[in-house]
Design brief:
Number of domains: 1
Shape: globular
Helix content: 25-40%
Order of helices and strands: HHEEEHEEEEH
Strand content: 15-25%
Number of helices: 4
CATH class: Alpha Beta
Structural class: alpha+beta
Number of strands: 7
CATH architecture: 3-Layer(bba) Sandwich
């Protein structure tokens, strides 16, 4: 396949992903989660405190190139607690939330929530992963999340 076709396919995929993302950013999502904490977190980041209005990871742009497994095009959002914690360089404070929005295909989201005492082996992070918007596919102590993030244990599991 020629480079021209690859670039064209990438642009079309990106535009489709952006259109799909608009369906979820700033709107109440259908919360399909098998766990009450997961439901509460999704409601919080989509309804109570619209994550799309949070600050983005310092030095990154909206729609940055992502890394596996988060997708080709991502935006990393931080709530105020997480954003302040970065500047203090002491690890993330309790209540820190990070949302990774994957716009490289059907919109998917990952959420990290710092919950003291919840998961000592994983830096007290509660992980949540979704597909097709906010349909929760994994939550809690997610082995696949910890598998990647444990390499960054010295940075509070932030890759």
């Amino acid at each position: 396949m020629s480079r021209k076709w690859i670039v064209a396919l990438f642009v079309v995929s990106l535009l489709c992903g952006l259109q799909w993302a608009r369906t979820f950013d700033g709107q109440a999502a259908t919360i399909a989660a098998p766990d009450e904490r997961a439901r509460q977190l999704v409601a919080y980041v989509t309804i109570t405190s619209n994550y799309a209005e949070w600050k983005t990871w310092p030095g990154s742009e909206k729609l940055s190139l992502g890394t596996t497994p988060h997708g080709l095009v991502v935006t990393i959002y931080l709530n105020d607690t997480a954003y302040r914690s970065l500047s203090e360089a002491k690890g993330m404070a309790a209540g820190s939330m990070i949302v990774v929005a994957d716009y490289g295909g059907p919109t998917a989201f990952e959420l990290m929530y710092k919950l003291p005492g919840y998961n000592p082996e994983g830096g007290d992070w509660y992980w949540l992963s979704s597909k097709d918007g906010w349909t929760v596919s994994a939550f809690g102590r997610v082995d696949s999340c910890l598998g990647c993030h444990k390499a960054a244990k010295d940075r509070d599991y932030l890759r």
